[in-house]
Design a protein that fits this description.
Blueprint: H1 5-17, E1 22-27, E2 30-35, E3 43-46, E4 76-79, E5 84-87, E6 103-104, E7 109-115, E8 118-123, E9 128-133, E10 139-141, E11 146-152
Length: 154
């Protein structure tokens, strides 16, 4: 697996814009650990030869994007399952996955999140009526950031 300079730039941008305190990514042959605040400086460990040192990104603490109040009583927020760019529709010009007022169930796809050119479907995880779509189309969302608000069925 090799990353292009564009891939690295995209990863660094996502990391700089996120509000995580600690991140550990590990695959065969590569382990990346990043920490903020008073933690140890970020470090990158890998099996790459000494002649090709791994880059050490300079990360500034990220400010929270938006303060979101808890869902009103009787409502449920569906949070983002990961950091990435949220899309309302499968492609430009296509009908959105959901609309306000629509009845959904736990398996309803409410959108997709793009992370490093991979599209990940996001399911509602709750049944009910869509009351509000909280995340704008084609915007970066944080892990746990509310995507939609639902009035649960029952």
């Amino acid at each position: 697996m090799s990353l292009t300079p564009k891939d690295v730039a995209e990863v660094l941008k996502l990391l700089e814009e996120s509000a995580f305190e600690e991140l550990v990514l590990e695959t065969d042959g590569l382990k990346i650990e990043l920490r903020r605040g008073n933690a140890v400086k970020p470090r990158v460990l890998s099996d790459t030869p000494k002649s090709a040192p791994a880059p050490k990104p300079a990360l500034a603490p990220a400010e929270p994007k938006v303060e979101v109040s808890p869902a009103p009583e009787g409502m449920t927020d569906v949070p983002s399952p990961l950091l990435g760019v949220f899309y309302h529709a499968p492609k430009p010009g296509a009908e959105p996955f959901i609309k306000v007022g629509q009845q959904i169930d736990e398996d309803t796809i409410i959108g997709i999140i793009e992370v490093m050119k991979l599209m990940n479907s996001v399911r509602a995880g709750v049944s009910g009526e869509v009351v509000e779509i909280m995340a704008q189309n084609a915007t970066l969302v944080e892990f746990g950031e509310p995507l939609i608000r639902v009035r649960p069925a029952g």
